[in-house]
Amino acid sequence: MPRRSRDRIELLQGTLDLLVLQTLQWGPQHGYAITRALRAHSNEALQVDTGSLYPALDRLERRGWVRSAWKLSDSKQRTKVYRLTAAGREQLVSERSHWEQLSAAILGILNRSEG
Question: What 3-state class would DSSP assign to 29?
Fold first, then answer.
């Protein structure tokens, strides 16, 4: 198995939503910019493909957590730009809290010594 595939980190179900919301907290972005940001800020460990990203963006938009609008890019191409809504900011706070609780619980198990 190629090293790149072997080292790839699989995201837990629901984690992608949290990561997309967090990325959009930094400002409106198009899909490719979101994948670049996730890759860059994870030291290349998180590689989200379009087959996962765009369904997640559609789901987040249906829930009212993000909004999209078509814009012209610097290269004069139409691109869909996503931004976080007020409801999305609230959801981000909730999901971050849940993630922090889950992380602490997992670390509690991993760091427990025998006996």
Answer: strand
Tens digit of each residue's pLDDT, the chain (115 residues): 444 544 556 666 679 999 999 999 999 999 999 999 999 999 999 999 999 999 999 999 999 999 999 999 888 899 999 999 999 999 999 999 999 999 999 999 999 887 6
Residue 115 lies in a domain: no
The total number of structural domains that make up the chain:
1
Query: What is the chain's length?
Result: 115
Q: Is 48 inside a domain boundary?
A: yes
DSSP class per residue in 57-113? HHHHHHTTSEEEEEEE-TTS-EEEEEEE-HHHHHHHHHHHHHHHHHHHHHHHHHTPP
CATH number, position 104: 1.10.10.10
Helix (H) or strand (E) holding 41: helix 31-41
Q: Classify residue 34: in a domain, yes or no.
A: yes
